[in-house]
């Protein structure tokens, strides 16, 4: 099992550019989510999905778009990048969405917006 | 609203010394609590979790945490630090969402542990 994979590992964008961060998992997990990590703030939830075709907003959804067409993939789109979106992005998945379920994290994508 | 507070953004210990990383939570319902570790340039890895089965939870790499309801705490400890324990540690509480039956994680700000010889 590869677990949760993310591409690219690093990315530099100019303000206004768009891009898609890729996330895939091979554990047949229904629940997937995107977090951003900023210094001194821990991780904050951007968007999540409870299954193919179902997504919802987290704490900091503005400027990001998601879709979930398959169980395996959960891409995160930045439509018009801003310097405030400079961060490290983590994708996570879990078997179920209940309280005790463990979320498994990918290795992260470090994004810089100039 | 549920929240997590980690006291001390940086903790430094000597190799072989006790490691104590502090976490306090706020929750209106019995919580599910987690400790994750992040090694440099890597993703987060689960150390241990509290699911109400036992108040003392043992995790990987010799770490353990004790749930104390009266103190709303879930501190992480390890009797003897190794150099390989140097990493950032995050405490998190699981919070139910009203839509979709999904529990999101609320993370603390993290504590960076340094271990020196």
Q: Could you characterize the architecture of this molecule?
A:
The complex is a heterodimer of chains A (about 110) and B (about 120). Chain A is built from no helices and 11 strands. With about 110 residues, chain A is an all-beta fold. In chain A, the strands form 2 sheets. In chain A, strands 2, 4, 5, 6, 9, 10 and 11 form a 7-stranded mixed sheet that branches. The N and C termini of chain A lie far apart (about 35 Å). By secondary structure, chain B is mainly β. Chain B contains no helices and 11 strands. Chain B has strands at about 5, 10-15, 20-25, 35-40, 45-50, 55-60, 65-70, 75-80, 85-95, 105, 110-115. In chain B, strands 2, 4, 5, 9, 10 and 11 form a 6-stranded mixed sheet that branches. In chain B, strands 1-3-8-7-6 form a 5-stranded antiparallel sheet, with no helix packed on it. Chain B is globular. The mean pLDDT of chain B is about 90. The interface between A and B is medium-sized, with 28 and 29 residues.
Low-confidence stretches of chain A: none
- Low-confidence region ranges of chain B: none
Question: Major sheet of chain A: size, sense and barrel closure?
Answer: 7 strands, mixed
Number of strands of chain A: 11
How much helix is in the residues of chain B? under 10%
Structural class of chain A: mainly beta
Query: Please, what is the oligomeric state?
Result: heterodimer
Overall form of chain B: globular
Label the structural class of chain B: mainly beta
Give me the Rg of chain A, rounded: 13 Å
Short précis:
By secondary structure, chain A is mainly β. Chain A is built from no helices and 11 strands. The model of chain A has no long low-confidence stretch (mean pLDDT 93).
């Amino acid at each position: 099992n590869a677990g949760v994979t993310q591409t690219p590992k690093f990315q530099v964008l100019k303000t206004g550019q768009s891009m898609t961060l890729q996330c895939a998992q091979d554990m047949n997990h229904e629940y997937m989510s995107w977090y951003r990590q900023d210094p001194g703030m821990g991780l904050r939830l951007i968007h999540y999905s409870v299954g193919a075709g179902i997504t919802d907003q987290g704490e900091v959804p503005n400027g990001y778009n998601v879709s979930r067409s398959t169980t395996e993939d959960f891409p995160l789109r930045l439509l018009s990048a801003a310097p405030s979106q400079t961060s490290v992005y983590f994708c996570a998945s879990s078997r179920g969405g209940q309280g005790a379920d463990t979320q498994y994290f990918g290795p992260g994508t470090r994004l810089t917006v100039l | 609203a549920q929240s997590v507070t980690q006291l001390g953004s940086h903790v430094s210990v000597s190799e072989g010394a006790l490691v104590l990383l502090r976490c306090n939570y706020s929750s209106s319902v019995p919580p599910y609590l987690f400790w994750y570790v992040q090694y440099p340039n890597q993703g987060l890895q689960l150390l241990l979790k509290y699911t109400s089965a036992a108040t003392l939870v043992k995790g990987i790499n010799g770490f353990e945490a004790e749930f104390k309801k009266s103190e709303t705490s879930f501190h992480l400890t390890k009797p003897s630090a190794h150099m390989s324990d140097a990493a950032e540690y995050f405490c998190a509480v699981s919070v139910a969402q009203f839509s979709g039956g999904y529990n999101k994680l609320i993370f603390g700000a993290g504590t960076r542990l340094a271990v020196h010889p």
